[in-house]
Design goal:
By secondary structure, the chain is an alpha+beta fold. Helices cover 17% and strands 44% of the residues. The chain is built from eleven helices and 41 strands. Bound molecules: adenosine-5'-diphosphate (ADP).
């Protein structure tokens, strides 16, 4: 039993193929995690890195309390089950299951106990004396599961274990593996390209594409709140319908226009509170996503719906308990091919529809998904990043949502009318503005508060919430942007400093027991200042870049504005300005070509020295964009 922590894990194969990019995940003890995605997305590579069968290019993998990057596979306390059972043909089932334990020199009695127990759990007791060739695919896979179970691993890794089985057996084995998980109480990580397998088995699912994690969530959340069009389309059968269209805000409603068709519906603006206003201009194109079960042909639904579109029926698929109706919202369209007007409807109405029939379909607008046309990211993120608000600056005061606050020195600007980008994490407790709390949603450990300020919606992300009905709020001004006539008149202070740096080798001498000895030190050089690297940091650099290349590679040192401190020694910097945000002051400093921001208590000017907190500093290889530390 163990938890796992994958921190900034990368895999670059020797041929340069970047198979896994910045994989981050904490897996709790006893979870059933499924990695899913199309072939080549990096799921097996990730699993094999966890197993130790593949080197980790960069990042840190922890199993239990141990960093295992350099731990041999056999010492990681994991067991792996593969698609091609990998059984020894000349051994009996018993011998196959016992093999690993014999290698580990467990005593005979213990081996016998474990093998018979595993066989019992898997229902293969009667086959123990048989050879693998006398068994079916499903039985063989049970044997390979047995071989993994008897090792009593902390983590079970399963790489497409059911791919060789026929559909019926797969379904059966699926539930057997799920049962096995609850019986063994071990952490399971399961790789599959089959979304149904993922949805039915995982407690949490990692959806991957092209080496990047797309979303990590429970099956239900992935289905209901896909973060992008890829996840929306990948999870669920039949695939979500995607139309193209535009959104136009008119008063308290938004008109959704479907391109290439006559279809148009009206939805209340309250549904789109989280959307950036630019999507509501009637011009910016979006993808409109609706699942087949969120469209109804039932006469009552159509009668009561405010969102009805016309559909021309092309054909249907009879599934027994329900029918999939294929059609098009463009009366000249063809429901046979996927297009931006093709529509698939799950119909339980039992109506006998024929090719060419034109019917009304009610769209369940509460379940509409919207995605950006370019990035394909959801326009209605579960946790919005910003509040987009109209604002006015007059005489150093910021007015928005009927409220007025004094701008601190650092963000004082000329009188303008424009837009305020107020990040949801820039709303602080205890300010001068009084807001009402409408709701608090805990989304994967994050509290999203829906507030109203003078009756207008405002979202805030907070660490802790105690159920207050009203609260005093303030603004973290260093995070805001004010845009006027397309220009940023106020910009946020970067939260992360990025400094050019090199990894260097210093030769020198040192007095050891009264004698001078030659010593070599490795470290980071920033603006001619040398910081000796801790062994663990140097090892990470060597592991990713190799010893020789590490001294030639351009690096960036990344640290937060609170992770650099004004000091007596360190990196020489020139103070360019002092930024007074009211509650906090920061220095804007130049270091060579780089600009950094540092928290300071008093006023400073001229040359100063900055000391990084190396426990919190990150090191990034710029060329391949790999976070090494
Ligand atoms: P998946 O398991 O999702 O099908 P993989 O993890 O096997 O994907 O592969 C991810 C990517 O890495 C693919 O583009 C694949 O071609 C590449 N890849 C896998 N193994 C190697 C290798 N040994 N050398 C080079 N590239 C590889």
């Amino acid at each position: 039993m163990a938890n796992l922590n994958l921190k900034h894990i990368y895999k670059v194969y020797p041929n340069g193929a970047k198979a896994v990019n910045d994989f981050n995940m904490e897996i709790a003890d006893k979870e059933f995690i499924v990695f899913v995605g199309p072939s080549g997305c990096g799921k097996s590579t990730t699993l094999r890195m966890i197993a130790g069968l593949e080197d980790i290019t960069a990042g840190e993998l922890t199993i239990g309390d141990t960093i295992v990057n350099d731990v041999e596979p056999k010492d990681r306390d994991i067991a792996m089950v593969f698609q091609n059972y990998a059984l020894y043909p000349h051994m009996t089932v018993y011998e196959n299951i016992a093999f690993g334990l014999r290698l580990r020199k467990l005593d005979k009695e213990e081996i016998h106990k474990r093998v018979t127990e595993a066989a019992e759990i898997l229902g293969i007791t009667e086959y123990l004396a048989k050879k693998p060739k006398e068994m079916s695919g499903g039985q063989r896979q049970r044997v390979s599961l047995g071989r993994a179970i008897v090792r009593e691993p902390k983590v079970m890794l399963l790489d497409e274990p059911l791919s060789n089985l026929d559909a019926k057996l797969r379904t059966q084995m699926r539930s057997e593996i799920a049962k096995l998980h609850s019986r063994l109480n071990t952490t399971f990580i399961y790789v599959t390209h089959d979304q149904v397998e993922a949805m039915t088995m995982g407690t949490r699912i990692v959806v991957m594409k092209d080496g990047f994690v797309q979303q990590i969530d429970t099956p239900k959340n992935l289905y209901n709140y896909p973060g992008n069009k890829f996840v929306a389309g990948f999870i669920g059968t039949p695939q979500m319908n995607f139309f193209e269209g535009t959104l136009l805000k008119k008063g308290e409603n938004v008109i959704v226009n479907f391109e290439y068709s006559e279809a148009e519906i009206t939805v209340p603006y309250s549904m789109l509170y989280k959307a950036k206003p630019t999507y509501l201009d009637g011009k910016t194109k979006v993808y409109i996503g609706l699942r087949a079960e969120d469209i109804s042909l039932a006469p009552d639904d159509v009668k009561n719906s405010k969102a009805v579109v016309k559909v021309i029926v092309s054909h249907k698929e009879e599934l027994g308990n329900e029918t999939l109706i294929y059609g098009d919202i463009n009366m000249g369209g063809d429901g046979y091919v996927e297009s931006s007007t093709r529509i698939i409807i799950k119909d339980n109405s039992g109506r006998d529809l024929k090719t060419g029939d034109i019917v009304d379909a009610a769209l369940n607008i509460d379940r509409v998904h919207l995605f950006d046309r370019e990035t394909e990211v959801s326009v209605l993120p579960r946790i919005p990043e910003f509040n987009y608000l109209d604002c006015e600056v007059k005489g150093g005061k910021l007015k928005f949502l009927g409220a007025e606050v004094e701008l601190p020195e650092a963000v004082k600007c000329a009188d303008v009318k424009g837009e305020l980008l107020l990040p949801t994490d820039a709303i602080t407790f205890g300010g001068a503005l009084k807001a009402d709390v409408v709701s608090c949603e805990n989304i994967n450990g994050v509290n999203l508060l829906a507030l109203t300020l003078n009756g207008k919606r405002l979202y805030a992300v907070v660490d802790a919430f105690n159920g207050e009905k009203t609260m005093n709020i303030g603004i973290d001004f260093k995070k805001i942007t004010i845009i006027s006539n397309g220009e940023n008149v106020v910009e946020p202070m970067p939260a992360l400093n990025s400094l050019d740096c090199k990894f260097v080798k210093h030769k020198g001498t040192e007095e050891v027991n009264g004698k001078r000895k030659k010593v070599i030190r490795f470290g980071f050089e920033v603006a001619d200042t040398f910081f000796e690297a801790e062994d663990s940091a140097a090892q990470k650099i060597f592991a990713v870049l190799g010893v020789k290349k590490s001294l030639l590679t351009a690096l960036k040192m990344e640290c937060g504005v609170y992770d650099l401190a004004v000091s007596d020694s360190g990196i020489k910097a020139t103070v360019e300005s002092v930024l007074d945000y009211g509650a906090e002051k920061f220095l804007k400093c130049a270091i060579g070509e780089n600009t950094v921001y540092v928290k300071c208590d008093g006023e400073r000017s001229g040359e100063i020295y900055l000391a990084p907190d190396f426990d919190r500093v990150g090191i990034v290889e710029t060329e391949r964009a790999i976070k090494i530390i």
